[in-house]
């Protein structure tokens, strides 16, 4: 399996990758170079803001405002920077910098899907599971991905069919096929707190706890996907994440040899607000089976007026 | 007795030993590990656990042949009961977060505390994978990679970030209780995290990155260093029911402030793990 993957990578032309779409040919090399540069700039900003955050915290100022300002600043830096080079592309950012965050269907057009700070609560508190997430999609599939966590100096990158990397070193999902030996990641999202949804959420946790090796909660969907991609965790599922939380991570996991599907077993839909990532298809199947019909469906990101 | 113990020398020696042990752990964390089940269930131990404990104990014995040890692996190999005396006693968890370590999840650490006359004088928690080193000496403050740190000062439960664990037992009653507490906490606090290392959870409270840590089922070696580091950072460590912390009770609640600690204690459904560590 390992040999096959290595051979496949050698055979692919890596030099200059362009792709056709409904728009003019998209220069993926250029897209990646710009995206990389801008993420590095944004990462510096994020690190700086994090030190200021602690000051604000102890002085009792309004941290909610400060974090929103940083979110917006980072998103603007990224989207305006990309727009300079790619004015015809579509931009979906959590803060709405490039147009409405929700209510737009994913098309074949080159589309940037951006979360300026994923794991905002962690960021506010100074807990290190937080990152910038940028995904580039073309013809409705992910082509480029970068997740950058400047708190602990971890930058995850992937290009379709070129493997996944952390800080330039290739990473692989764990290869784990058994749920009993797996670390599973999940989040206790406040959107799932009303009694019926809470019962489903906790019921699923209980089932996983009984079967899996261990359960972990980090507070960041994008970091959860990164952890599966690097093989530190074996599976992750969540009923809630927006497209900007998963648009990059899905490619990282797949390029690392893992799978990303819908928690009910079907195909992953980046606008569906549901995700299940696993080291292997077998593990993914076991997780799907365990979740069974205890599913949660939130308003889709491509439907108008998503308020979650 | 404390005056005849050179605490400065103790600190220097354990600091160096943890660095050495850290290299061993970081190297072995590169690959997923073989493990054995300890007390059945999913309480794991690896060769690295044992190697690290040996490295630290031998290193200390060279300089302080009379000092005592309460170590995680010592306990599990049948020495069982650990009675704490006034003698200088090192309380060691060679790899806290072994489950994470086995999976190459970079969130585990060495945790070492020194008690003299039953008072914790020195505490070190070191995660070599992410280079996070927390240290404290009684009365001298708490430090993170050489920088002085303080707990967050958070008093309000609604703004608190809580770290806890799902635990290493599959006992149904315990699991239900863990879940029940999680569900209760989730609704009241800013956020809930489960990262897999008791010692690092306490370190996060000392750092101010988390505001509360509570857990039922931990051992003395998981919390000895953390207890000192949190208090030296200005936080509090109590029993989860609101009373005084008892290091052998297998229960801990650390928080940024006394008010927050008591509010959390009021919310928790209590659990008393048996047997105690003594």
TrEMBL record, chain A:
CDD domains linked: IMPase (cd01639)
Gene Ontology annotations of biological process type: inositol biosynthetic process; phosphatidylinositol phosphate biosynthetic process; signal transduction
UniProt enzyme class: hydrolase
Binding site for Mg(2+): 94, 115, 117-118, 245
Keyword tags: Hydrolase, Magnesium, Metal-binding
Pfam families given in the database record: Inositol_P
Cofactor (UniProt): Mg(2+)
Plastid keyword on record: no
Residue runs in coiled coils: none
Enzyme Commission code(s) on record: 3.1.3.25
Name recorded for this polypeptide: Inositol-1-monophosphatase
UniProtKB/TrEMBL annotation, chain B:
Family according to the record: Belongs to the inositol monophosphatase superfamily.
Listed SUPFAM superfamilies: Carbohydrate phosphatase
Pfam hit, one: Inositol_P
Keyword Metal-binding: yes
Enzyme Commission no: 3.1.3.25
The name this protein goes by in its record: Inositol-1-monophosphatase
Positions that bind Mg(2+) 1: 72, 96, 222
One BP annotation, GO: phosphatidylinositol phosphate biosynthetic process
Pathway entry: Polyol metabolism; myo-inositol biosynthesis; myo-inositol from D-glucose 6-phosphate: step 2/2
CDD domains documented for this protein: IMPase
The keyword Coiled coil is assigned to this record: no
Obligatory cofactor(s): Mg(2+)
Keyword annotations from UniProtKB, A to Z: Hydrolase, Magnesium, Metal-binding
Entries under InterPro entries matching the protein: IMPase (IPR033942), Inositol_monoP_metal-BS (IPR020583), Inositol_monoPase_Li-sen (IPR020552), Inositol_monophosphatase-like (IPR000760), Inositol_monophosphatase_CS (IPR020550)
Gene Ontology MF, one: metal ion binding
Catalytic reactions of this protein: a myo-inositol phosphate + H2O = myo-inositol + phosphate
Binding site for Mg(2+) 2: 93
């Amino acid at each position: 399996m390992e040999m096959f993957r290595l051979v496949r990578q050698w055979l692919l032309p890596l030099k200059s990758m362009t792709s056709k779409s409904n728009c003019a040919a998209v220069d993926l090399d250029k897209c990646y170079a710009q995206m990389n540069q801008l993420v590095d700039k944004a990462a510096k900003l994020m690190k700086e803001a994090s030190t200021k955050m602690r000051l604000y915290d102890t002085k009792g100022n309004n941290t909610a405002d400060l974090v929103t300002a940083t979110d917006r600043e980072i998103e603007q830096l990224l989207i305006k920077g990309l727009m300079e080079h790619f004015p015809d592309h579509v931009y979906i950012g959590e803060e709405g910098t490039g147009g409405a965050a929700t209510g737009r269907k994913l098309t074949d057009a080159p589309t940037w899907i951006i979360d300026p700070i994923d794991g905002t609560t962690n960021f506010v508190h100074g807990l290190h599971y937080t990152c910038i997430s940028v995904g580039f999609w073309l013809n409705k599939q992910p082509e480029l991905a970068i997740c950058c966590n400047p708190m602990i100096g971890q930058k995850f990158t992937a290009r379709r069919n070129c493997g996944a990397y952390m800080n330039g070193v290739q990473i692989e999902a764990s290869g784990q096929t058994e749920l009993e030996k797996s670390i599973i990641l999940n989040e206790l999202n406040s959107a799932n707190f009303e009694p019926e949804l809470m019962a489903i959420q906790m019921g699923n946790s209980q089932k996983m706890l009984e079967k899996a090796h261990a359960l972990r909660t980090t507070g960041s969907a994008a970091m959860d996907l990164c952890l599966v991609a690097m093989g530190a965790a074996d599976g992750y599922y969540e009923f809630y994440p927006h497209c900007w939380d998963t648009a990059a991570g899905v490619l990282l996991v797949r390029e690392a040899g893992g799978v990303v599907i819908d928690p009910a077993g079907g195909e992953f839909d980046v606008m569906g607000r549901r995700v299940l990532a696993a080291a292997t298809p077998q593990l993914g199947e076991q997780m799907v089976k365990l979740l069974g019909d205890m599913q949660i469906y939130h308003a889709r990101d491509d439907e108008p007026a998503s308020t979650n | 007795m404390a005056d005849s113990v050179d605490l400065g020398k103790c600190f220097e020696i354990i600091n160096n030993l943890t660095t050495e042990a850290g290299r061993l752990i970081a190297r072995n964390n590169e690959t997923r590990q073989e493990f054995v089940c300890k007390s059945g269930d999913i309480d794991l131990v690896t060769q690295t656990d044992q190697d690290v404990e040996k490295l630290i104990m031998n290193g200390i014995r060279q300089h302080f042949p009379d000092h005592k040890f309460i170590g995680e692996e010592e306990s599990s190999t049948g020495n069982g009961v650990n009675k704490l005396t006034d003698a200088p006693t090192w309380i060691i968890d060679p790899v806290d977060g072994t489950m994470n370590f086995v999976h190459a999840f970079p969130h585990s650490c060495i945790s070492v505390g020194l008690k003299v006359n039953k008072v914790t004088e020195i505490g070190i928690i070191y995660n070599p994978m992410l280079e996070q080193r927390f240290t404290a000496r009684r009365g001298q403050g708490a430090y993170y990679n050489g920088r002085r740190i303080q707990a967050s000062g958070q008093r309000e439960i609604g703004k608190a970030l809580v770290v806890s664990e799902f635990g290493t037992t599959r006992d149904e009653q315990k699991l239900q209780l863990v879940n029940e507490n999680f569900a209760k906490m989730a609704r009241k606090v800013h956020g809930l995290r489960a990262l897999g290392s008791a010692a690092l959870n306490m370190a996060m409270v000392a750092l101010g990155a988390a505001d509360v840590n509570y857990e039922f089922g931990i051992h003395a070696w998981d919390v000895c260093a953390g207890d000192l580091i949190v208090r030296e950072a200005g936080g509090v460590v109590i029993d989860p029911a609101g009373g005084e912390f008892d290091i052998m009770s297998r229960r801990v609640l650390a928080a940024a402030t006394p008010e927050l600690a008591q509010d959390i204690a009021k919310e928790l459904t209590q659990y008393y793990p048996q047997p105690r560590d003594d």
